[in-house]
Structures are given as C-alpha cells and as structure tokens.
Amino acid sequence: MLDFNQLARQMQGISQHLVTESSAMRQKLDYAEVLMEQMPAMQTELMERQEKWGDRTIFTAAVPIEPIETRVMIEAAPYAHTVLATDGSQIAPSHHEIAYCYLINTGRIILHYGQGKQPLLDSLPEVFYRPEDLFVSRQWGIRTEEWMSYRRTVTETEVLAELAQWVTQAPTNRNSIELAMDSTEGTIQTAPQPPILGEQEIPKPPELGVGGGSPEAVLSPIPEPITEVAATKKRSTRTKRTEQLSLLESQRTRATPLITPSKIPTIAMVDGSLIYWFLEQLPGEARDRILQPILTAWRQLQSIGVPMVGYISASRSGESLNFFRFLTCPYTSPDCQSHCSNLPDKAPCQVLEPLRDAAVWARLLNPGQRSPLWRSSAKIQDYYEEQCIYFCYLHVGTEVARVEVPEWVAQDATMMTRAMSLVIAQVQKGYGYPVALAEAHNQAVVRGGDRSRFFGLLEQQMIRAGLRNVGTSYKEARKRGSIA
Predict the structure, then answer these.
(1) What is the pTM of this model?
(2) Cα separation of 400 and 412, whole Å?
(3) Which helix (H) or strand (E) holds 406?
(4) Bridge partners of 64?
(5) What is the arithmetic mean of pLDDT over 283-312?
(6) HSE toward the beta carbon, residue 308, CA cutoff 13 A
(7) End-to-end alpha-carbon separation of the chain, Å?
C-alpha cells in the first residue's frame, strides 16, 4: 500500500521541477522554429551530408522525402469505408500457478461505414502449454515472458492480414441483394445474386488455437472425458462463428449506392510502431521467427491493396529532429565517431534535447494537416527487405500523432492520402483516439476476473483428468490474502 502522507511531501518538489522544465522547453521550441526556417534553403546540402557521413554518426536521423516546408491538408474521408484493427493482451506464465502456460488474446475489429453491414468485435484466445512453445526461446537466452510478447506482436499482424483478406474476398460470395440507382433512368436495379452462404467455401476470419484447434480444446492435454468436453465446446464455437458470419454477410435492405468490394476504401490499423526495435538484440534465428511472419502478413496486405498503418499517440520519438543535428553540428564533417565519441556529456549538436518531434510539429501544423514524409533510418530495417518504414506527423485535432506506413503505402500518393483521411475520421469518431484501436484493446484486454476464470476452468479440467494436488504455490496463496 502507498503511504500518501509521505508521498504528499514529495509532490511540491516534482511540481517545481516541471515548471522549470516547461520554461526551458519553450525556449528550445522557439529555437527549433528558427532552425526550421533555415532548413528549406539547406535541405539538399544536409541530405548529402547525411548520405556521406550517416554511417559515422552516433544517432538515428530520419531522411526527409519531401521538402521540409511541406504541409498537406488531408481531405475528408469517403462516406463508405472499412476499418480493421487488432490488439493483443496476455496472461503471463508463472511457476506459482496451477500450471505453467501462457495465453495470448487477440482483439479483432471490423467496422463498416456507409455500407449497412454489421461490425465484428470479438477476440481470439490462444493457449501455449507445450514444451516447444514454452521453452523454445531458452536456446537464445530469451525469457519465456519476453518471447510471449514477441509472439503476441506476430499474432496481431497475422490476424490483421487475415481479416483484410476476408473483407476483400467474402463479398464476392455474399448472399445479399445489392441495390443500385441507375443514374440515367433513375430506377432501382437489383444486382445479380451470388451463391447462397454454405454452397461454396467462403474465406472466414481465422480461429486461432494451438495446433489449429479452438482455445477450449487445448486447455488440458488429457484423454477421454476432456476430449468429449472439448469437442462439444468446439462444435459450439463453430456454430457461434457460423451464426456470426451469417450476420456479417447480411445486407441491409435499404437502397444504397452500389459499391463493389474492391472499391471500398479499407485501412488496417495497429497501435504502436511498425519499427520493432526489440528485434535488434535478438539472435538471427530468433529474429527471423518473429520478423518473417510479420513481413509475410504485410505482403498479403500489399497484394490486396489494404494500407497498413501504425498509429502512435503521444510519440516520444526524435527521429526527424535528429536530422537538424546535421545543421547544428559545429564541425565541417559530421563525423561523430572521431569528434564526439569520448565526450563525457552530450554532443554539441544536441541543442534541441530533450525536445521530441511531436512537440515541434504541434507548433507547425494546423488541425487536419500532415508533415512531410520521412523515411526511418533505424538499423533494424536492414532486415525488413523491401518493407522500409516511412512516417509523418498528423494533426488529428486533439494531438499530433506519429503515423507509420510501409514503403509501398508511402509511394502511392492516392493510397497515402486516403489512409490519412481514414485515420483522422477514426480519431474524430473516437473523441481523440481511433475508435477501432480503442475497441480492439477493449476486446483484447484480460482483466483480473478473466484471469481467475481461466485458471478456474483449467483447474476443473485437470481435476476431471484425475490429477491430484492441483493448486497454486503457498507463496501465491498467501499473496492473495493478508492475515495481518
């Protein structure tokens, strides 16, 4: 428990420190604006310096792709569009629980706007309990808890790509009547009806589970009684999924403009960066096990033309401001390893520290505008192959967010502009934060009650299987209740 009487005495010191820091930040913001005014005339020269000396610097500076003075006003989002999002949560493994296993829960969101379709809001739990799942990372010196978080990132991306494929393909088999207004005759025409649901295979959102099964079927590695229970639950889950898909496939009977599925703007969103810095420290084999499935999922999105977007709220990155260090460097050659590698304090070019990109762009952008595009220079992207990450700063009204996209999105001006418009629309609908990402989080989060029910269900299955002495460790039992 916190002793708030002692904490109260520390609050005054914290507040005074923040006031002093705020004043210093304002001065640095003013200086950043002065440097920004000098930048357009020197951008080409500075980029040449970066290309020549970039491998000798001790900081990561993004590369401007557009003129530094670029400000792009984002157009309004189209009336009919679709937004996909995923997010993940987990139950971490613990030796003090009744069984050593972990769970990854992936929230899935499909929101259709202006199309009269039902949304999808659910989650897919996946349990990992086999030795090859729990201890495979030990060979690389990676703790199981860390490996679990990496696996969660992979699952979020794979599920997102599968949702995008399902959304873009399923409408070709939809059992619905689409109505279109004939622009010349002014009459309502009925589009040809595709095959009835169930007559041919339809791409469905995937059901995750260990070994491809349902989550309930993998709670306990036991024989006869549990197999029947698991099979019954599996059939129930499939029935529920079928009903859900039938609901998703239904089309509203009101007359709406006929829009073919391929022409409905769609965006796939994740919360956080697409630059996975944590991969830098991993051995090559471990890194490939995480990164390659992610790149494969991105290529799937690219093949169907659904832009991938990483949305970062309250970004702490200083990648674009680091480019300014080529301007503030006092040496004719910005060779950090020769001039500054042994300095005890910060380098002389760090005149804007500790400013962050978002703080500067908040002064320079109006609501609805984006900054110029930048290409990240993070070293981990050496393993990204053709999927280099670009980013910009977008004033969404409530804040300036960092928005990251793969190279193939950034190089398609139409796709990039459309993606930005959908991002702003999501923020407006979510009152300051993309509603699809917020809902994906709400679907994924595992609360205390969920954790208790999960281990309660697992305990029941273990007892039915004939296992004895099922329970938590004495340490865990005592932590859950006080006798004082």
Answers:
(1) 0.80
(2) 23
(3) strand 400-406
(4) 374
(5) 97
(6) 33
(7) 13
